[in-house]
Write a structure and sequence with these properties.
CATH class of the largest domain in chain A: Alpha Beta
Radius of gyration of chain B: 28 Å
Largest sheet of chain B: 4 strands, antiparallel
Distance between the termini of chain A: 65 Å
Oligomer: heterodimer
Strand order of the largest sheet of chain A: 10-9-11-8-12
Number of strands of chain B: 8
CATH superfamily of one domain in chain B: MetI-like
CATH topology of the largest domain in chain A: D-Maltodextrin-Binding Protein, domain 2
Helix content of chain B: 55-70%
Largest interface: A-B, 52 and 46 residues
Radius of gyration of chain A: 22 Å
CATH topology of one domain in chain B: MetI-like fold
Strand content of chain A: 15-25%
Number of helices of chain B: 12
Order of helices and strands of chain A: HHEEEHEHEHEEEEHEHEHEEEHHHHHH
CATH architecture of one domain in chain B: Orthogonal Bundle
Number of helices of chain A: 14
Helix content of chain A: 25-40%
Number of domains of chain A: 2
CATH class of one domain in chain B: Mainly Alpha
CATH architecture of the largest domain in chain A: 3-Layer(aba) Sandwich
Strand order of the largest sheet of chain B: 1-2-3-8
Distance between the termini of chain B: 46 Å
Number of strands of chain A: 14
């Protein structure tokens, strides 16, 4: 009897010591052989599966870039589709290694969720989509409107702020996924659909009659969308952060997936450092010196990612706008890779 | 001290060999181990969350929520706190559960009895109903009512209307709202008095029947009193009530009472689904009554209605109540599927939006689970009380 008790106490003690172990995510990823990446449940341009289950989009490209940097192979990604409500818990509990799912960077999220935003993949803002035959020209005419919205987003809060600020009333019809939100809008449950402007264009394509809807000119908020990692693993945080910077730096330097091999023999020391030709920077991140080369070779630079998924080369056709390089009047800027 | 007395009483055996002492010891040990396990889990979670910089505690309940909710039974806007969203969601859950239980019970009993009807057509219709709705997943039925049925209604500008007072469109059902003046209180008092009179009448009739065997008609007079008396008072008091009619202003109807389509779809789906199960419960309860009871009732010359109401149902209730309680609990828990169509119930508002805005999953899920547990235990306590009351009293 005594023995049993002692062993029970010992068992509890064992459990207690095994608690709170936080292994390095990089080591985890290396031993698993793939990056577990949290994406959306389907948003064209950002993360969207095709009929064969292949994921594409700018957020997906970030996942692939991380895999290219850490494992040398962009295809070694496992995608976990998450809705807005599930995403943070999935990351907190370790279900995904990185969350790249059109997620807005806010102070509360950065400060109280135990998460870190690693940068901005896409500078967005919240807008409104309405049915054309309502005859509304401005968001300020929306007093009394019913608004379809996705649950668990910053959009919900911005919407309330905007209507209160302008002394207008609204009815929020809240859905779980963006598909249901679109369905609600399409069937006339609400007058307006509100979401990040980029999403509005993407969702508009999904409508049965895209030309029946229009996006209002007002942008009512700042929505910097970026990848998120768990707090407390600085090495992994750095890797994801610099993966993104590497793609921007490549665009700044004119390195693309097509010319990256020729660029290896470039005389520009910045390009040489980036591609790991000499004095590669991989070791500072715990990666091989070819990390950036792998990213650019397999995914391309930021400009290529943008054009292919959301820009002129895609169905969305969104202008670079503030997502252009800083040298071209935009906000995308990479700190020096040296 | 307990040890001592046992030792004194059973001085022959050592106290640790006493089976009673051993049993108690092991039970304490088991409880202690379970408690230690849970304490450990909670502590572990708290430490881990602190280490990862995740905010914990219930302080967030006082922070302003900052988001809108479409249906609120208590005053609410964006400036209210997260704690308030909890109550808004809770009340919406309770609203749909109580209405669902009420309607499902009526429909279920009707169909359960219809299934036993001598009329071939009625019996077949009832059993077809049961087989269809019992065997389709509830979520699918909710989607059906929401997306397939209610979505095809016209837009607000082309609403179906009844006399410019009731409007029905894709945004919901709009009905006039009664605005009562202070004198309206007299009508409530009249209603209360009417109900007391009716209860008195029933008691008197019961007594009269026991003593003399005579009865007198009750149903129509009591309906007359309950409706008539308040109505008379209403007109005597000078009709102290006006109606606020819904009106199309801008995008939507304002004024009056709005019943949102999410509530309608959820309520209809929950009612129809649960009623199918209740019908089966009722049928099994009635079939559990020995045939002799019916035959005896017929022999006494009771009508079909009397036979059901006085002989069969009271006895069948004893069999019906326990599984019926299950159905009520299921309905309450199933109401959380509301989140799929955007009805602002507790899971959608509190365990959905609030959870996401604050990120405090552990606290919020804990509170939500506690609510469903409390609701279920309350329902089951009420039903157990009722079950005890109608239980067979052996003489």
């Amino acid at each position: 009897m005594k023995k049993q008790f002692v062993s029970a106490v010992a068992a509890l003690g064992l459990l207690a010591t095994s608690a709170a172990s936080m292994a390095g995510t990089l080591d985890d990823v290396k031993s698993k052989g793939f990056v577990q990446c949290g994406v959306s449940t389907g948003l064209p341009g950002f993360s969207n599966p095709d009929d064969k289950g292949n994921w594409t989009g700018i957020d997906v490209d970030v996942c692939r870039a991380v895999a290219a940097a850490t494992l040398g192979d962009a295809s070694k990604v496992k995608y976990v589709p998450l809705n807005a409500k599930e995403r943070f818990t999935a990351l907190q509990s370790g279900e995904v290694d990185v969350l790249s799912r059109n997620t807005t960077w806010t102070l509360t999220r950065d400060g109280s969720l135990g998460l870190n935003f690693t940068g901005v993949t896409y500078y967005d803002g919240q807008g409104f989509m309405i049915n054309k035959n309502l005859g509304v020209k401005s968001a300020k005419d929306l007093d009394g409107a019913a608004v379809c919205i996705q649950a668990g987003t910053t959009t919900e809060l911005n919407l309330a702020d905007y209507f209160r600020q302008h002394g207008m009333k609204y009815q929020a019809v809240v859905f779980d996924t963006s598909d249901q939100t679109v369905k609600g809008f399409e069937s006339g449950r609400c007058d307006v659909l509100t979401s990040d402007a980029s999403q509005l264009y993407a969702l508009r394509i999904k409508l049965a009659k895209p030309e029946s809807a229009m996006v209002l000119p007002e942008i009512i908020s700042k929505e910097p969308l970026g990848p998120v990692v768990r707090q407390g693993d600085d090495a992994w945080f750095n890797i994801v952060k610099w993966t993104l910077f590497a793609t921007v730096a490549a665009e700044e330097l004119g390195v693309t997936s097509k010319n990256v091999d020729e660029m290896k023999s470039s005389t520009n020391p910045n390009i040489k450092r980036l591609l790991g030709v000499d004095a590669g920077q991989g070791k500072n991140l715990g990666l091989p010196d070819t990390w950036a080369y792998n990213i650019i070779k397999q995914i391309g630079n930021y400009g290529e990612m943008f054009d292919r998924n959301v820009g002129k080369g895609s169905a969305l056709g969104i202008d670079r706008g503030i997502n252009a390089l800083w040298t071209q009047g935009g906000l995308q800027y990479a700190p020096p890779i040296r | 001290m307990a040890k001592k007395t046992i030792e004194q009483e059973k001085s022959k055996t050592k106290f640790w060999n006493d089976p009673k002492v051993r049993a108690i010891f092991f039970q304490i040990l088991a409880i202690g181990a379970v408690a230690a396990f849970f304490l450990y889990i909670i502590n572990n979670a708290l430490t881990n969350m602190e280490q990862r910089g995740i905010t914990t505690g219930f302080g967030f309940l006082e922070d302003p929520a900052g988001f809108g909710i479409i249906q609120t039974l208590i005053p609410y806007d964006e400036t209210y706190s997260y704690g308030r969203t909890f109550f808004v969601g809770l009340l919406n859950t309770i609203l749909v559960s109580i209405m669902g239980i009420f309607l499902a019970t009526i429909l279920g009993f009707a169909i359960g009895i219809a299934r036993l009807s001598q009329n071939w057509l009625i019996a077949k219709v009832a059993s077809t109903y049961i087989e269809i709705f019992r065997n389709l997943p509830l979520l699918l039925q909710i989607f059906f009512w929401y997306f397939a049925v209610l979505r095809v209604l016209p837009s607000p500008r082309n609403s179906l209307s009844m006399g410019e007072a009731v409007f029905f469109n894709v945004r919901g059902l709009y009905i006039p709202a009664p605005i009562t003046e202070s004198a309206f209180i007299a009508v409530w008092i009249a209603l209360a008095i009417a109900i007391i009179i009716v209860i008195g009448m029933y008691r008197y009739e019961h007594k009269l029947q026991k003593e003399t065997g005579k009865t007198f008609p009750l149903f129509l007079p009591s309906v007359g009193i309950v409706i008539g008396l308040p109505l008379i008072v209403f007109f005597l008091a000078g009709s102290p009530m006006t109606w606020e009619y819904p009106e199309l202003r801008g995008f939507n109807f304002t004024g009056g009472i709005t019943i949102i389509p999410e509530l309608m779809a959820l309520l209809v789906a929950l009612t129809i689904y649960t009623a199918a199960f209740i019908a089966e419960v009722v049928r099994s309860g009635i079939e559990a009554i020995p045939r002799g009871q019916s035959e005896a009732a017929n022999a006494l010359g009771l009508t079909n209605g009397q036979r059901l109401r006085l002989i069969i149902i009271p006895q069948a209730m004893r069999v019906i109540i326990p599984p019926l309680t299950n159905q009520y609990l299921n309905l309450t828990k199933n109401s959380s599927l509301a989140t799929a169509i955007g009805y602002p119930d507790l899971v959608s508002v509190f365990a959905g939006t609030t959870l996401n805005q604050t990120g405090q999953a552990v606290e919020i899920i804990f509170m939500t689970m506690a609510v469903y547990l409390t609701l279920s235990l309350t329902t089951s306590a009420l039903m157990n009380w009722y079950n005890k009351r109608i239980a067979l009293v052996e003489r």
